[in-house]
């Protein structure tokens, strides 16, 4: 199959300087990387380019610094990357300029260096052409392996890809293939699970998904507003009363288009949101005046699992309950475990904190995954598609 974007299969990296955009924006705790999953996703691409005799120049943002800030240095992250891939990685404390150019000029095939945080330069977030030109001087080709930052039109993602021959790395390729399979050419029926606190932040998502899936399972506090729209008692639960008309419209649209919207039928309720507070399970018709719905109940879990058992494709964004507080993560975990069991014949694309397992595809992207689910075009992906188009024209 001809990819709509060029990949490492199309690139000749031998002896070349490969500017490799990775997403090293990883959670840190006490100066150590607290979650290495993004690094593990990028590791095969780094190793492949080095093994093919490329000179790997890693480039990434980290955090949201305002200018240069030692607390936002990529240096400790570069050390974690070196440990994970089991090879030495040089570090340069600027991503452009003389020091970076000298370090790259001294590289041998197979060497790896990591450049300092791109966001130390204001040109990065401005997608500035001149800054991108300075980055482009450090590579013969550009490889983007950072889907999770593809929603940012930033210089190291977008502008630089116009200046060098651009290719998708293996993690980017895998992510785009999985996402494409999940929503653009899926096995049907397709189910989407959308959770999280607020309808207001997920209107575009719900609108886009409704047109694409057979069944939409709604959970999280956003389900409360739908329940309110149906006249159910919600007690002290988190709701968005001003979005009740929107919820009604969504329900009506689904009905008109014969899409099923599945709402919780029972809930785990408590008097306040904290870890291990006393809780009980009630029907959504019997939520008391002081109750807060904090998770879906066991009948809702069964209901969601029954939907998944009939589905061929699942996309999932957002938890069913107040995931950060035990035991209100239980509904999400139970459905995720069942989904993982079913994944032998279910294509699943999801991004859920704390949920991995044997899914076809677990995204490491936050904002980019959401924007993709919303049907938005991602600048970092568009520029790769444009690279394919121009390569085809030249051929
Ligand atoms: C992320 O963590 O979602 C990406 O690395 C993008 O980071 P940002 O939200 O700071 O642009
Ligand atoms: Mg973010």
Description:
This protein is an alpha/beta fold. Helix content is 35%, strand content 17%. It is built from 13 helices and 17 strands. It has helices at 37-51, 75-85, 98-105, 122-125, 129-136, 170-183, 203-210, 221-229, 244-256, 298-309, 330-342, 367-373, 379-394, and strands spanning 17-21, 28-29, 32-33, 55-59, 90-92, 112-115, 141-144, 166-168, 190-194, 215-218, 260-262, 266-270, 279-283, 292-296, 313-317, 347-351, 361-362. The strands form 4 sheets. The protein has a 6-stranded parallel sheet with strand order 5-6-4-1-7-8, with helices on both faces. A 6-stranded parallel sheet has the order 11-10-9-15-16-17, sandwiched between helices. It has a 3-stranded antiparallel sheet with strand order 13-12-14. Strand 15, helix 11 and strand 16 form a beta-alpha-beta unit. Helix 1 (37-51) crosses helix 2 (75-85). The longest helix is centred in the C-terminal third of the chain and has 16 residues, at 379-394. The chain is elongated and about 70 Å long. The two termini are 17 Å apart. The mean pLDDT is 92. 3-phosphoglyceric acid is lined by residues 23, 25, 64, 148-149, 152, 366-367.
């Amino acid at each position: 199959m001809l990819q709509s974007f060029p990949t490492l299969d199309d690139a000749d990296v031998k002896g070349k300087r490969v500017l490799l955009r990775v997403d090293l924006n990883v959670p840190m705790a006490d100066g150590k990387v607290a979650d290495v999953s993004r690094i593990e996703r990028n590791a095969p691409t780094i190793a492949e380019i080095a093994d093919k005799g490329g000179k790997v120049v890693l480039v990434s943002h980290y955090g949201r610094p305002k200018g240069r800030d030692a607390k936002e240095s990529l240096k400790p992250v570069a050390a974690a990357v070196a440990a994970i891939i089991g090879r030495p990685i040089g570090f340069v404390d600027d991503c452009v300029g003389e020091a970076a150019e000298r370090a790259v000029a001294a590289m041998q095939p197979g060497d790896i260096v990591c450049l300092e945080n791109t966001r130390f330069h204001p040109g990065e977030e401005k997608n500035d052409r001149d800054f991108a030109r300075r980055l482009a001087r450090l590579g013969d080709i550009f490889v983007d392996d950072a889907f999770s930052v593809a929603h940012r039109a930033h210089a190291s993602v977008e502008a630089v890809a116009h200046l060098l021959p651009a290719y998708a790395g293996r993690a980017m390729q895998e992510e785009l293939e999985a996402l494409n399979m999940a929503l653009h050419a899926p096995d049907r029926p397709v189910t989407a699970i959308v959770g999280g606190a607020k309808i207001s932040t997920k209107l575009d998502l719900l609108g886009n998904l409704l047109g694409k899936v057979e069944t939409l399972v709604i959970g999280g506090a956003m389900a409360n507003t739908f329940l309110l729209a149906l006249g159910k008692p919600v007690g002290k639960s988190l709701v968005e009363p001003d979005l009740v008309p929107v919820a009604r419209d969504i329900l009506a649209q689904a009905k008109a288009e014969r899409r099923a919207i599945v709402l919780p039928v029972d809930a785990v309720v408590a008097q306040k949101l904290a870890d291990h507070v006393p809780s009980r399970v009630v029907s959504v018709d019997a939520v008391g005046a002081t109750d807060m719905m904090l998770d879906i109940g066991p009948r809702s879990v069964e209901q969601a699992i029954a939907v998944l058992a009939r589905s061929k494709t699942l996309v999932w964004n957002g938890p069913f309950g107040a995931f950060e507080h035990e035991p209100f993560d239980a509904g999400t975990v139970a459905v995720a475990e069942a989904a993982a069991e079913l994944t032998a014949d279910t294509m699943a694309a999801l991004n859920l904190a704390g949920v991995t397992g044997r899914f076809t595809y677990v995204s490491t992207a936050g904002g980019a995954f959401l924007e993709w689910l919303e049907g938005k075009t991602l600048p970092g992906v568009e520029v790769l598609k444009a690279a394919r188009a121009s390569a085809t024209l030249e051929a």
